[in-house]
C-alpha cells in the first residue's frame, strides 16, 4: 500500500465510493451487460475497450491494459499521487484522511497558507517593479502568461517578506525556506531583488519558489527553495499542473529551466515541464508516465546536454514500458528551448520534435560511442556495454527486440541476466492454476471459505506461494471486500500491475462452478506441495538421514502417491 494511510481507511473509502460516479464524470459510459463501457481515456481508440464494473468497483482497458480502483483512476486520469487521490475522494464522501505526518504543523498552522500568501505578495510586488516588467517584456513574456505562471518579484530588502507575517509565523517562514538564519541567529529573506517563479505541486498548490537574479553581478543566477516539509525537488516538476490542464498532447517535453517552460507556453507549446535543479529521477518518470504516453527529454546540444541525456537514459531504462515511449531531442548548438522558440517560432520548434531520437536508438548510440563496431574488439565492447544497459529494462517486447538488435549488430547472441522471478510470476497468455485461483479470489473474495485452512503452504519457499497466501489472508479477514479494495493492498509492490489483468481472465461462474474450480485448484496445489515435501525429505535422507517422525511422514506421503 502506498503512503502511510491505514488499509482500514482505504477499505472504508472505497466502500463509500462508487467508481461509476468517478469515471462517468470524466468518460462517456454506456451500459454493457452488467458493466459499463466507453472509449479509453488513456489511449486513442475507435472501438470501446474500456470497462467499468460496479460489482468489482474496478476499471480495466483491454486495449492499453490500464486498470484499478477509483483511487487508481484518479491517479491515472488526474495525474495525482496516491495520497492526493485518496484525499480528493475522501472529500467527496465526507471522510477525513487520518493524519500521516504530513505538512500541517505548529498551532494548527498550515504551511500551504504561508507559501500561498508569500506568492500573492511577490505577485503584487511585480506590478510595482517596472524593471522586472521590462525584463519580462524583453524576454517576450506577456502579462497573460505571467499571470498564468503567477510570476512575482522579491523586493531588494532584508525583510520584504518577513515583515508581512506575524511574529508567531516567523518560524514557519524558516521551515518553508522563505527566510534563512545566519551564524548569529538573525533571520532574513532568502529571495531579494529577484524575479520569482512559484513552484506548485500536482494539485496546483504553491510549495516552493525559484528566483532569478536581475542584476548581472548578482550571484547565483538562479536560487531555489531548499528541501522542506512541502518541497522535495526529486519528486516535483515545474509547471506539471499547467501542462496537465492546458495540453492534451500525448507527449510531455522535459526541459531544464523555468524560462524554457514559460517561453514554450507563450508560443503555444503547452506540454512542457522542467526538473528543479536536479537530474531526472525515477519519481519524475513514474509521475509523467501516469499522465502521458511519451516523454521527450529536450536538451541543449552541448556537452552538458549530452551528459544530462545520458543520466536521463539510465534513470528511464528500469521504468520503461511497452505501452509507453521515451525519446530525446537535442537542440542546435548555442540554443536552449527558450532561445530557439523565440528566434524561430512554434512551427520550427514542432518540426524539431519530428527529429527526436527514440530511446532504443539513443541507447545503442550511447553504447557504441567511441567504438569501431566494424572491428572484433569494438563489437565485443559494444556487445558488453549494450547488454548491460538492456538488462535494466523490464521484461517485455521492447527488451526482446533490443536484444535481437544487439545480436544482429554483433553477430553474437546477447546474454542478459534473468529478471527477478517476482516480476514474471504470471504469464497473461496462460491461465495457470495460480492465476485462476487469484482470479476467483479477487472477483469473489467470499469463496475463500472453500479453501482449507490447513494447507501447508510453508513447505514451498516461493514468492508466488507467499503472494497467494497474502491474498487468501486478505479475503479471510474481509470476505465482503471488493476487488478494487483487495487490489489496493498491493499498490506500490511488484504485484500490483500484474493483478488487474488477472481479474479479467475468468469467465462468469455460478456458485457450483466456483466450488468445483476451487476444489480442483486446491487438489492441484496439495499434490504439488506433497511432491515438494517428498523431494525435501529424500534430499535430507541422502544428506543427513531422517528422524523417526520424518520417516513416518515420508511413508505416509508415498502411500498417498500409490493410492
Give helix % range. 40-55%
Distance between the termini: 45 Å
| Biggest sheet statistics | 5 strands, antiparallel
The low-confidence parts are 101-109, 419-428
CATH topology value of the largest domain:
DNAb Helicase, Chain A
Fourth CATH level, the homologous superfamily of the largest domain: DNAb Helicase, Chain A
Number of spatially distinct domains: 5
Overall geometric form: globular
What strand order characterises the main sheet? 1-2-3-4-5
> Could you tell me the mean pLDDT?
84
Q: CATH top level of the largest domain?
A: Mainly Alpha
Q: In terms of structural class, how would the helical and strand content be classed?
A: alpha+beta
Helix count, per DSSP? 22
Radius of gyration: 28 Å
Number of strands: 16
Query: What is the level-2 CATH architecture name of the largest domain?
Result: Orthogonal Bundle
> DSSP strand (E) fraction?
5-15%
Amino acid at each position: 500500500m502506498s503512503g502511510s494511510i491505514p488499509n482500514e481507511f482505504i477499505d472504508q473509502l472505497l466502500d463509500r465510493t462508487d467508481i461509476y460516479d468517478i469515471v462517468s464524470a470524466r468518460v462517456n459510459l454506456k451500459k454493457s451487460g452488467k458493466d459499463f463501457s466507453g472509449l479509453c481515456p488513456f489511449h486513442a481508440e475507435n472501438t470501446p475497450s474500456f470497462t467499468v464494473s460496479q460489482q468489482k468497483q474496478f476499471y480495466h482497458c483491454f486495449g492499453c491494459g490500464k486498470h484499478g480502483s477509483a483511487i487508481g483512476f484518479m491517479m491515472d486520469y488526474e495525474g495525482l499521487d496516491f495520497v492526493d487521490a485518496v484525499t480528493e475522494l475522501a472529500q467527496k464522501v465526507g471522510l477525513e484522511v487520518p493524519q500521516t505526518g504530513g505538512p500541517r504543523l505548529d498551532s494548527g498552522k498550515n504551511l500551504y497558507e504561508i507559501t500561498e500568501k508569500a506568492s500573492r505578495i511577490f505577485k503584487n510586488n511585480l506590478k510595482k517593479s517596472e524593471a522586472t516588467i521590462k525584463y519580462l517584456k524583453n524576454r517576450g513574456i506577456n502579462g497573460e502568461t505571467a499571470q498564468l505562471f503567477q510570476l512575482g518579484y522579491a523586493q531588494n530588502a532584508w525583510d520584504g517578506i518577513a515583515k508581512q507575517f506575524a511574529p508567531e509565523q516567523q518560524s514557519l517562514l524558516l521551515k518553508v525556506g522563505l527566510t534563512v538564519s545566519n551564524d548569529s541567529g538573525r533571520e532574513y529573506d532568502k529571495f531579494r531583488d529577484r524575479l520569482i517563479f512559484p513552484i506548485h505541486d500536482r494539485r496546483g498548490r504553491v510549495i516552493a519558489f525559484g528566483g532569478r537574479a536581475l542584476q548581472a553581478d548578482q550571484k547565483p543566477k538562479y536560487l531555489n527553495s531548499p528541501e522542506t516539509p512541502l518541497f522535495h525537488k526529486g519528486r516535483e516538476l515545474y509547471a506539471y499542473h499547467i501542462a496537465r490542464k492546458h495540453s492534451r498532447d500525448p507527449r510531455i517535453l522535459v526541459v531544464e529551466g523555468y524560462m524554457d517552460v514559460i517561453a514554450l507556453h507563450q508560443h503555444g507549446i503547452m506540454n512542457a515541464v522542467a526538473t528543479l535543479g536536479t537530474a531526472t529521477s525515477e519519481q519524475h518518470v513514474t509521475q509523467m508516465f501516469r499522465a502521458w504516453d511519451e516523454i521527450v527529454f529536450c536538451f541543449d546540444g552541448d556537452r552538458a546536454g549530452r551528459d544530462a541525456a545520458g543520466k536521463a537514459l539510465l534513470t528511464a531504462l528500469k521504468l520503461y514500458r511497452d505501452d509507453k515511449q521515451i525519446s530525446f531531442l537535442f537542440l542546435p548548438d548555442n540554443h536552449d528551448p527558450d532561445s530557439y522558440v523565440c528566434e524561430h517560432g512554434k512551427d520550427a520548434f514542432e518540426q524539431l520534435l519530428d527529429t527526436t531520437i527514440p530511446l532504443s536508438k539513443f541507447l545503442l548510440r550511447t553504447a557504441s560511442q567511441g567504438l569501431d563496431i566494424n572491428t572484433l574488439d569494438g563489437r565485443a565492447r559494444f556487445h558488453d556495454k549494450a547488454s548491460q544497459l538492456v538488462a535494466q529494462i523490464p521484461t517485455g517486447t521492447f527488451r526482446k527486440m533490443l536484444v535481437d538488435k544487439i545480436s544482429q549488430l554483433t553477430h553474437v547472441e546477447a546474454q542478459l541476466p534473468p529478471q527477478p522471478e517476482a516480476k514474471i510470476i504470471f504469464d497473461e497468455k496462460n491461465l495457470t492454476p495460480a492465476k485462476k485461483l487469484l482470479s476467483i479470489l479477487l472477483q469473489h473474495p467470499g469463496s475463500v471459505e472453500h479453501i482449507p485452512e490447513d494447507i501447508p503452504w510453508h513447505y514451498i519457499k516461493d514468492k508466488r506461494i507467499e503472494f497467494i497466501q497474502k491474498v487468501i489472508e486478505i479475503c479471510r479477514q474481509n470476505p465482503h471486500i471488493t476487488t478494487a479494495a483487495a487490489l489496493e493492498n498491493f499498490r506500490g509492490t511488484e504485484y500490483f500491475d500484474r493483478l488487474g489483468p488477472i481479474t479479467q481472465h475468468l469467465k462468469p461462474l455460478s456458485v457450483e462452478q466456483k466450488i468445483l474450480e476451487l476444489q480442483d485448484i486446491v487438489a492441484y496445489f496439495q499434490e504439488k506441495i506433497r511432491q515438494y515435501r517428498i523431494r525435501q525429505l529424500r534430499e535430507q535422507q541422502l544428506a543427513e538421514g531422517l528422524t523417526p517422525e520424518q520417516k513416518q511422514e515420508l511413508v505416509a506421503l508415498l502411500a498417498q502417491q500409490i493410492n
